[in-house]
């Protein structure tokens, strides 16, 4: 069911300019797929969909291009190269970097478009990331540690 729903999502965003998850949910319902908002959110993440600008200045969901995937790998490499350590305090993720690398690593984090990360502030060797919830902070820390271990 999941793979069919995700295939239908790709079909729908290929045929229509879908701007919101609610709009996507409505199209899926018309096609006979019932899915909760959380499920659609996970599908969007798993399918690596992103929002792109339309000709009329609005936004729509679209699959990430190959070029974007290559950029994503470059951002991960910058993160790995600058990373020293990471700790959390409630919904704040504190990342220590090689001296002088905090700005570059923070920019890489921003470019990764982690939904849970609200924003980053970088100094010389420390980044403070504001994360939406305490639970999200733990999840983001685990995802980032997985990137570090990919070496």
Please provide a written account of the structure:
- Helix content is 51%, strand content 23%.
- The protein is built from six helices and six strands, in the order αααββαββαββα.
- The protein has helices spanning 2-15, 21-30, 37-46, 66-82, 102-111, 134-149, and strands at 49-53, 59-63, 83-89, 92-97, 117-122, 126-131.
- It is elongated and about 55 Å long.
Proportion of residues in helical segments? 40-55%
Largest sheet: 4 strands, antiparallel
Ends apart, CA distance between termini: 35 Å
Low-confidence stretches: none
Give a topology summary.
Layout: H1 2-15, H2 21-30, H3 37-46, E1 49-53, E2 59-63, H4 66-82, E3 83-89, E4 92-97, H5 102-111, E5 117-122, E6 126-131, H6 134-149
Antiparallel strand pairs: 1-2, 3-4, 4-6, 5-6
């Amino acid at each position: 069911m999941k793979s069919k729903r995700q295939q239908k999502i790709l079909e729908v965003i290929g045929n229509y300019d879908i701007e919101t998850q609610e709009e996507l949910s409505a199209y899926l319902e018309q096609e006979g797929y019932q899915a909760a908002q959380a499920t659609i959110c996970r599908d969007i993440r798993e399918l690596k969909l992103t929002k792109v600008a339309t000709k009329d200045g609005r936004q729509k969901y679209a699959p990430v291009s190959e070029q974007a995937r290559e950029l994503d790998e470059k951002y991960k490499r910058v993160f790995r190269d600058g990373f020293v350590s990471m700790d959390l305090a409630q919904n704040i993720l504190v990342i220590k970097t090689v001296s002088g690398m905090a700005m570059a690593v923070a920019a890489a984090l921003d470019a990764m478009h982690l939904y849970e990360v609200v924003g980053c502030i970088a100094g010389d060797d420390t980044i403070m990331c504001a994360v939406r919830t305490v639970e999200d902070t733990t999840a983001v820390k685990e995802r980032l540690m997985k990137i570090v271990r990919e070496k």
